[in-house]
Structure to design on (88 residues):
């Protein structure tokens, strides 16, 4: 099923959680397509981080974005961005 069919334009604006889930679906699909085209995962990650930080700076400003980014090392070390590996 295409992502576009999951978004119902006749509905009211989706909740923040729903919007995040829809956005993540779009990103996963685009990521997968880029990988199929041979784009390196590290290049994708760096481009995604650049794009995300640029959007945050545009929306909240440099100081607020820098403050947000200061909390990332602890979150990374705490495993917030780690995907549990399935063991067979």
């Amino acid at each position: 099923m295409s992502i576009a069919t999951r978004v119902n334009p006749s509905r009211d604006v989706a909740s923040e959680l729903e919007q995040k889930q829809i956005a993540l679906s779009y990103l996963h699909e685009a990521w997968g397509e880029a990988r199929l085209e041979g784009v390196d995962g590290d290049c994708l990650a760096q481009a995604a981080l650049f794009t995300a930080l640029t959007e945050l700076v545009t929306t909240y400003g440099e100081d607020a974005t820098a403050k947000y980014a200061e909390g990332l090392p602890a979150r990374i070390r705490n495993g917030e961005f780690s995907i549990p590996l399935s063991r067979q």
About this structure: The CA atoms of residues 30 and 76 lie 24 Å apart. The radius of gyration is 16 Å. DSSP finds four helices and no strands in the chain. The chain has a mean pLDDT of 89.
